[in-house]
Design goal:
By secondary structure, the protein is an alpha/beta fold. It contains 14 helices and 13 strands. It folds into 2 domains: about 220 residues, Enolase-like, N-terminal domain (Enolase-like, domain 1, 2-Layer Sandwich); about 260 residues, TIM Barrel, CATH 3.20.20. The strands form 2 sheets. Strands 5, 6, 7, 8, 9, 10, 11, 12 and 13 form a 9-stranded mixed sheet that branches. A 4-stranded antiparallel sheet has the order 1-2-3-4.
Length: about 500
């Protein structure tokens, strides 16, 4: 059920002190702080005039297990903003994101984490509506992000939570508001949002956020205006998903596949994300090699010889030694299967600063090692690089502004790039796919909502053929040409 909440009156000007994104550039220290975005309006600037938000809930067709946690439902945050340009035009924008509490706030119960995130959304609506800064969406994000973080800290204290609300959790909630602002900005000018990342629309070059080495460069240097026609889809094999018929406890009779082989046949898959729990080398080894065997058999039937894997531990490896031993065992057992592993994702703790012993230099000699949960700003990217991580997972759930800034920093540093999911249906998948289709060198996109909660995308599917239903192992991303971020809701979301 969807219900919109509207702020009745405009609050006083929101003023932010300190850096919204306290980034350290790759080897070059970034600025210690930023002033509020801009004061004097120009035609290319926007100002937020109204914000509404709503929640919708869906139950998964089957539980999804990752990192030792099982998820069977989702709450989606939908946000609408209205903006006014410096020359008086008005436009609405829409943003959406799943409140992935089990992933972003794992230290508390799922009910407690979800409750905190929904309360954050209520607070962020008022904070966003109160923002009187005028500029590009990245300018607004620079002011809003520290305000969101302060709201999260205060809310955690007010609710007496045993664990502070993590920055990652805050970013997930904030991402729907940031996406809506980027979407509104593009729609105000009748452009794809990706056409607004040059000096024509942005007041500041990237040196403001990423340091002096980015002087004179804008985001358009690091993202493509035109989306790639198709993007490979990494099919997620959840830690409890059935690989073979013998693994099935209950067969779901809903017209969708039940086993990995059935998914391969239906969607023509060629890229596979293998979820592993870590902590039990024998179980992880068995799962990898069994999946490799089943995939190999299916590819033989289809006469396909090009396919790939990624291994995602969701921090499950107790230490880097565990990862190295497992990789070497897999390489010995299935040399060809090992060569098909494109990268490893977040093998050990997301707390990079507190886990400095688990450096990835040796593992990165075998495969790219990607930071995901530990990546919450470019400062953490710099730390990850110093610890031997060689790739980044870009995620719409961390914010459009931040995803693009991190993409720019990572590209300049020569890092491996991929786009990952948060079981994103509907507009949130469109948002994620837009990033995946425009970041050069991106290895592919994870898109698992079609597996676990397809009903949440049912209204969107007819408008975007080949985006929510996969054929030939690819998502048809060439259709994401705007305006805004490309998501015009099929339901009664836009008002005014």
């Amino acid at each position: 059920m969807t219900s919109w909440s509207r702020r009745p009156t405009r609050r006083a000007v929101l003023r932010a002190a300190g850096a919204a994104l306290p980034f350290a550039s790759m080897g070059v220290s970034g600025p210690a702080g930023h002033a509020p975005a801009v004061r004097a309006a120009r035609p290319a600037d926007i100002r937020v005039t109204d914000v509404t938000h709503a929640f919708e809930g869906h139950t998964y067709r089957a539980p999804y297990m990752f990192g030792g946690r099982s998820v069977d439902r989702v709450t989606i945050l939908n946000v609408q903003v209205r903006v006014r340009t410096g020359d008086g035009r008005e436009a609405y924008g829409f943003g959406s994101m799943t409140l992935g509490n089990a992933w972003s706030f794992p230290k508390v119960s799922q009910d407690e984490g979800l409750g905190a995130m929904m309360a954050l959304a209520d607070a962020f609506r008022a904070t966003t509506a109160a923002c009187d800064e005028q500029g590009h969406p990245v300018d607004l994000w620079r002011v809003l992000e520290p305000a969101y973080l302060r709201e999260a800290a205060a809310l955690g204290r007010a609710r007496g939570m045993a664990s502070p609300i993590p920055k990652l959790c805050t970013l997930v909630v904030a991402s729907a508001f940031d996406a809506a602002i980027h979407d509104a900005y593009g729609k105000a000018f009748g452009l794809s949002s990706y056409a607004t990342y040059s000096s024509r629309h942005m007041r500041h070059d990237l040196s403001r956020d990423l340091g002096p080495s980015f002087k004179g460069q804008y985001l358009d240097r690091f993202v493509s205006l035109a989306p790639r026609p198709v993007t490979p889809v990494f099919h997620s094999v959840g830690a409890s998903d059935a690989i073979e018929p013998a693994d099935l406890k209950v067969r779901l009779d809903d017209g969708l596949p039940n086993t990995l082989a059935e998914w391969i046949a239906r969607d023509g898959l060629t890229h596979f994300k293998i979820k592993l729990n870590g902590g039990n080398e024998a179980q992880d080894f068995d799962r990898i090699t069994r999946i490799d065997r089943v995939v190999r058999e299916e590819m033989g039937k289809r006469r396909v010889d090009d396919w790939h894997y990624l291994l995602d531990f969701n921090e499950g490896c107790p230490n880097v030694g565990y990862l190295l031993a497992l990789l070497r065992k897999v390489r010995e057992a299935t040399p060809d299967g090992f060569t098909r592993i494109k990268y490893v994702e977040q093998p050990t703790s997301r707390d990079l600063a507190g886990d400095r012993a688990n450096v990835m230099h040796e593992a990165s000699k075998l495969l790219p090692v990607v930071v995901d949960e530990g990546l919450v700003d470019v400062e953490s990217l710099h730390l990850a690089r110093s610890m031997g991580y060689t790739g980044v997972a870009l995620k719409a759930c961390k914010g459009q502004s931040q995803a693009l800034l991190i993409a720019a920093a990572a590209q300049q540093a020569g890092m491996f790039l991929c786009v990952q999911d948060l079981t994103c249906p509907g507009a949130s998948l469109i948002h994620s796919a837009g990033i995946a289709a425009r970041v050069p060198g991106n290895a592919g996109i994870e898109a698992n909502a079609r597996q676990f909660v397809p009903a949440a995308s049912a209204a969107w599917d007819p408008k975007f053929p080949g985006l929510f239903t996969i054929r030939g192992g690819v998502m048809r991303t060439g259709q994401l040409t705007g305006p805004g971020l490309g998501a015009v809701p099929p339901g009664p979301y836009l008002q005014g």
